[in-house]
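Look over this today:
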Amino acid sequence: MTQREGRIKRRGNQNPTVHIYRYVTENTFDSYLWQTVQKKQEFIGQILTSKSPVRSCEDIDSTAMDFAEVKALCAGDPRIKERMELDIEVSKLKILQASHRSQQYRLEDRVRLSLPKEQEDTERRIQCLREDITMAEAHPQHAEGFVGMEICGKMYMERKDAGAALMEAAAGFEIGSAEKTGQYRGFSLCIRRRTFSDEKEFLLKGKLTYVIEPGDSGMGNVMKIENALTRLPAELEKTEGKLENIKQQIILAQAEIGKPFPQEQELKDKIARMAELDRVLQLEEAGRKEAGQLCPQEPLKNEEVEVAL
């Protein structure tokens, strides 16, 4: 099919529109041929797309379904056509059922493992933020001016001087773990050089560690460190909102656990109908075979036999 259509839909074709017709005949070998094409397309589709037939409904190859529909049209018996259509529908429903089952497993894991762990970590972060806010409030910044910053054992009361000392300390810092360089408003001030890079970053350490991306200006870096502490109340509010969201997710997930597959009855009805059609068609096929054995075809006479070499 791909090669046939490729001879029409190809580079150099001057026609703006191409119509492709597929001719099939009922009660002929066409049905078997289309079944072969369908099986090949299903196999190729699985390999080329790395799709798993039990992951989602879209995993049924659309081209394979098209081949299956053409194959059904080749069958003159309407019951065979119904059987083929049911086969497609049941396949889709089974994929949806497997997806529903997988979703239930994921919900159970989230309620039992990941969400409680995330809630615990968030609650711990909230507690640390509160303690860091208390630390910052115990060493308040002046309404105007600079509270001072200790760098390498020396106290600097001007932002410009503190910025210059900070940049000088960072310039000679080697690769390694963060080392305490000074102190600011009760928090440890550290410098860390990133691995395999000349870039450095400043850290404020309290109950939590706050990373400050450095700039080229020493005074600007000092102000970035000040702003990191100023943003703590907003960060606390954001984290408390996250905690409420996690709690809500747990409630919603618990409500979804145990819900049955919504199309379970439809799937059962279609499977039952398929089984019923299979029994009828198999009985008729067995009857035709038995009739053929009871009434064997009369052999040809010798003079009627033609041998082609």
Observations:
- Confidence is low (pLDDT under 50) at residues 51-60, 294-309.
- The chain is about 60% helix and 10% strand.
- The beta strands are 149-151, 154-156, 179-184, 187-193, 200-205, 209-212.
